[in-house]
Specification:
With about 100 residues, the chain is of the alpha+beta class. It is about 10% helix and about 25% strand. The strands form two sheets. The protein has a three-stranded mixed sheet, with no helix packed on it.
Length: about 100
């Protein structure tokens, strides 16, 4: 778990605020197959991708969301949300994003 995105979010304004040593971090993770998942916030949006056997997950904000892949800091109409992680004994990860639909913040 970390705060700043270690992977590009395909949004130039957000990518400028990514993890400063992201390339080195990703290299370290790639050398350690026992690491099954990496999760972060800061980008105010959801992302769930695999690189090799590692799952990379961004969690949405419990506040407002930024519009995915937008070159500027544009807010999205998505409601607040959060990610649930269920870590299994075999190393598997079950996860879902819960959106607080109907939230009238």
């Amino acid at each position: 778990m970390l705060h700043h995105p270690p992977l590009p979010m395909d949004a130039p304004s957000l990518d400028q605020l990514g993890l400063l040593d992201a390339a080195a971090f990703v290299e370290v993770i790639a050398r350690h197959p026992q690491v099954r998942g990496v999760a972060w916030g800061h980008a105010h949006q959801s992302l769930d991708v695999f690189r090799g056997a590692t799952r990379w997950m961004c969690t949405p904000s419990t506040c407002m969301q930024f519009r995915p892949r937008d070159p500027y800091f544009a807010t999205d109409d998505r409601p607040p949300g959060y990610r649930v992680l269920d870590l299994h004994d075999d190393g598997g990860i079950a996860t879902e994003v819960v959106w607080l639909e109907g939230y009238a913040g």
